[in-house]
Fold this protein.
Amino acid sequence: TLVLTRAYADWSSPVNAVYRSQLVARAVDLVQLFPAAAYAKNGADIRLAVDAVEDMFRLPDLTHVVIVAGDSDYVPLAQRCKRLGRFVVGVGVAGSTAKSLAAACDQFDAYDALPGVSVPTDKPQQKPDASASDAPVRQRRRAPNDPAADLLERALRLEHERTDADWMHSSVIKNLIKRMDPSFSEKGLGYKSFSDFINAHPSIVEMNESDNIRLVRLVSDKR
């Protein structure tokens, strides 16, 4: 249940005013920040942080804090919320959010990947390369400088060292990846599911989907 929803801005500004009716229709409390030379730059950051900390002390039943922002100035707020025992969810625009903010959250989701958010595409669809489309997913090579692949391999190694088991549940590996990088999202990388992400990296991981249980392990030459 959402207890408090607030949006901070100068709502008299035309660039922000276009969102007022949408936010009001969703019962979002609009906090007006009046423009001032000494206040405008970090006014929203300071006001939001002060209100959030006050609410956590005032409402002990508050369990989750969702920060919709991309500025690294919110890192101390996310850290303080976690120290006070709250689960912190960050939401930001992919490619425009500070990595330090994503890492400070317990979970981070890209705005474009949220349910109900449609992203307009102006680029015409290109015909897929016949050689690439005909090849099965497992035949694709690992791209150089692939942070997601490096993260996957690291998670597999850590879990293998911890349990000394060859086969591991894919859900455990995904949770470990999310703990290491809260901004990780297979959908943000273009995959429909985590299984598709796994299958796209055959040089790193093998998958066994027997009995409706997805088990994964490092390929033999990487152990």
About this structure: The two ends are 45 Å apart (CA to CA). The domain at 6-113 is CATH 3.40.50.1010 (Rossmann fold). Residues 130-142 have pLDDT under 50 and may be disordered.
